[in-house]
Amino acid sequence: MATIFSKIAAGEIPCYKVAEDEHYFAFLDINPMAKGHTLVIPKHEVNYMFDLDEEEYAGLWAFARKVAMALEQAVPCKRIGVAVLGMEVPHCHIHLVPLQTEKDMKFGNKVSVPAEEMQAIADAIAAKM
Ligand code: AMP
After folding, report:
1. I need a labelling partner for 76 at 20 to 30 A (CA). Which of 23, 34, 67, 68 fits?
2. d(CA 94, ligand 1 centre) in Å
3. Ligand 1: does its nearest atom lie under 6 Å from the Cβ of 85?
4. pLDDT value at position 1?
5. Predicted pLDDT of residue 111
6. Any idea what the CATH number is for the domain that residue 93 is in?
7. Residue 124 burial (CB count, 10 A)
């Protein structure tokens, strides 16, 4: 059965899309811990990051780097924090989180961002890609 993230990448479930190429996809986390919190996934469904083959693993991080560079231009921050957990969704993903302070990178933190602002943030990041 397809994961929720596969369905998002396939356009079957809505998301605030940031970027995609043939193999990778980026979209805003629906429960952001900071404004601009973005998830980057391989379209190929693999649960555990370190089960990706070397080529796909390197490609995922290269794509995440491009997204992070766009994100830091679009969302005011000191730097982009990076995390990989995968405790909730069994489809590997990189969390990119715009940080003002280290406290912004705290799992369990949730900021409330209205839908229009989520869309505006996604569009602003996409415009910098
Ligand atoms: P984890 O698997 O522990 O890295 O966490 C999964 C992340 O996916 C959490 O930050 C969720 O807020 C996020 N998430 C779950 N469902 C969706 C969705 N439909 N759209 C965007 N983000 C999601």
Report:
1. 23
2. 10
3. yes
4. 78
5. 96
6. 3.30.428.10
7. 16
The stretches in the chain having pLDDT less than 50 are none
- Residue 29 Cβ inside 6 Å of ligand 1? The answer reads yes
* CA geometry: angle 30, 23, 96, nearest 5 deg: 35
Does ligand 1 come within 6 angstroms of the Cβ of 58? no
Q: Using a 6 Å cutoff on CB, does residue 30 contact ligand 1?
A: yes
3-state DSSP assignment of residue 27: strand
Catalogue the active-site residues.
93
User: Which residue range forms the structural domain that includes residue 91?
Assistant: 4-128
pTM of the model: 0.97
**Residue with CA at minimum distance from ligand 1 atom 5:** 88
Per-residue pLDDT tens over the stretch 27-51: 999 999 999 999 999 999 999 999 9
- What is the total count of domains within the chain? 1
Cα distance between residue 92 and residue 25, in whole Å: 12
Instruction: Identify the helix (H) or strand (E) that includes residue 5.
Output: helix 4-9
CA distances from 107 to 14, 30, 33, 47 (A): 23, 13, 7, 20
Task: Give the pLDDT confidence score for residue 24 in this predicted structure.
Answer: 98
Cα(53) to ligand 1 centroid in Å equals 23
